[in-house]
Design brief:
This protein is mainly α and 276 residues long. Helices cover 79% and strands 0% of the residues. The longest helix has 34 residues. The radius of gyration is 23 Å and the shape is globular.
């Protein structure tokens, strides 16, 4: 009886903590979403209105305003390119570091990870100077390349850790059947690593989609991304809270879609030795 009471109390405490955490996390999201359906006067009214007539003016501005649509296109294109390049470069690099293990490869792997751990403010100035010299400022190429410098080390490190856990006997069997290195990588390693590839793709996409500092410094008009656009609207003389809320709500859509459709692959990929 005492054991059952203790387990019930523990369960109640755990569920209460989970409920408090969900309340803490979901309240700002719900607040932003409902704010996107208000008018400017309703959004700035004190005390806040919880019951109001919804307005779609903010979403009309987003979908009918060419500059706002362009920001979403820029963010999606930069994030997609980063996913493609991170996998294209990260898979062979991670596999090489996983299979040819030595003191040198261990040092290289740690050096790659140290690049990812470097603070953004420590590399933004050299990146700005480099892109200015290359005449790539305010271009999608500059933002995509700089995002790749923070995404590629993460992809290599996660893929390397995953490849280490893969059974080498399967690869040896493929070699005995006459498969060369490229055939082995394409036909054996990549299919076996699909959960991790999906997880890395999702992480890289979301990091690039949400990144603000590099895009803010390197862009001004043509290559502006969604986070930079939201900040620009907040910095204007007229504080358009519904429009900011609509942009923020729409920017959450990729995250919800990724979590809803590939959450099993993400969990499987990140729990099979990728994070140890």
């Amino acid at each position: 009886m005492l054991g059952r009471r203790r387990s019930r109390r523990q369960s109640i405490i755990i569920y209460a903590l989970i409920a408090l955490y969900l309340l803490f996390v979901l309240t700002p999201i719900v607040w932003v979403i409902q704010g996107s359906f208000k008018t400017t006067s309703q959004a700035l009214q004190l005390p806040p209105q919880l019951i109001f007539k919804p307005s779609f003016d903010a979403y009309r501005k987003v979908f009918l305003g060419g500059g706002l649509q362009k920001a979403f296109f820029n963010s999606a294109l930069i994030a997609t390119v980063n996913v493609a390049l991170s996998l294209l470069l990260g898979v062979p690099a991670g596999y090489a570091l996983a299979r040819w293990r030595s003191n040198a490869t261990e040092h290289i792997a740690f050096w790659i990870l140290s690049i990812r751990m470097a603070p953004a403010f420590g590399i933004i100035v050299p990146m700005f100077i480099l892109m200015r010299q290359a005449r790539l400022l305010d271009s999608l190429v500059s933002v995509a390349l700089v995002h790749l410098t923070i995404n590629l080390p993460l992809a290599i490190w996660l893929l390397r850790s995953y490849f280490i856990e893969l059974p080498e006997e399967v690869e040896e069997s493929a070699r005995l059947d006459g498969a060369n290195l490229l055939q082995l990588l394409w036909s054996v390693v990549i299919p076996m690593s699909m959960p991790m590839l999906v997880a890395v793709s999702a992480l890289v996409f979301m990091i690039s989609w949400n990144e603000f500092l590099f895009a803010f410094v390197l862009t001004s008009s043509e290559a502006v991304t969604v986070p930079v656009l939201i900040t620009a609207i907040a910095g204007t003389m007229r504080f358009d809270w519904p429009l900011m809320s609509a942009l923020a709500s729409l920017s959450l859509v990729p995250a919800f879609v990724l979590v809803a459709y590939i959450q099993r692959h993400i969990v499987r990929g990140l729990t099979m030795g990728a994070i140890r």
